[in-house]
């Protein structure tokens, strides 16, 4: 019996599925724009510390999984203005996340992609804080994503500088 203090199992399962679908859509948008990303990435001048192209797929698979679980954990904290604010900002940063690959690879706008990833980083830091306030575990689950995004921002800058 659900006493209102926690979501029912069917609703919770639906929320987890919705969270997973949201990251799959974001990943799919990036994937469509990145159809030639491995080839394009190899053609770019890169800093010596740039990771190999094969690392991006496994890294993003793990990050998107952690993101989906984090959003689900925040949803499970129950309806409140704080949860809605956290999940709304999460959706915004997810759109920004999905937008970066088309900008960087699809359009080749590396300078604009750098500006965009800076905005994403700010949205993501704020999302981590808001998630942490709702669930420390949810906040912690976003830390690897924040770390990777920080690295990606620095790499974006370096690649932009080396290829202008």
UniProtKB/TrEMBL annotation:
Keyword Transmembrane (UniProt): yes
Membrane topology (UniProt): Multi-pass membrane protein
Subcellular location: Membrane
Sequence intervals crossing the membrane: 12-34, 54-75, 87-105, 111-132, 139-160
CDD domains to which the protein is assigned, alphabetical: TSPO_MBR
Keywords: Membrane, Transmembrane, Transmembrane helix
Source organism superkingdom: Bacteria
Main subcellular location of this protein, as a coarse class: membrane
One Pfam short name: TspO_MBR
Family in the record: Belongs to the TspO/BZRP family.
Name this polypeptide is given: TspO/MBR-related protein
Organism per entry: Mycolicibacterium cyprinidarum
Lineage of the species this protein comes from: Bacteria, Bacillati, Actinomycetota, Actinomycetes, Mycobacteriales
């Amino acid at each position: 019996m659900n006493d209102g203090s926690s979501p029912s199992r069917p609703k919770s399962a639906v929320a987890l599925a919705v969270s997973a679908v949201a990251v799959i859509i974001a990943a799919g948008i990036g994937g469509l724009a990145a159809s030639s990303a491995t080839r394009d990435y190899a053609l770019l001048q890169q800093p010596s510390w740039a990771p190999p192209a094969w690392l991006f797929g496994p890294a993003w698979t793990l990050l998107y999984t952690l993101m989906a679980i984090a959003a689900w954990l925040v949803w499970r904290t129950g309806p409140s203005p704080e949860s809605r604010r956290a999940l709304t900002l999460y959706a915004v940063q997810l759109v920004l996340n999905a937008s970066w690959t088309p900008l960087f690879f699809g359009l080749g706008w590396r300078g604009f992609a750098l500006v965009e990833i800076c905005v994403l980083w700010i949205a993501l830091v704020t999302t981590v804080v808001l998630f942490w306030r709702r669930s420390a575990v949810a906040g912690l689950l976003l830390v690897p994503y924040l770390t990777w995004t920080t690295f990606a921002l620095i790499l974006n800058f370096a690649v932009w500088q080396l290829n202008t």
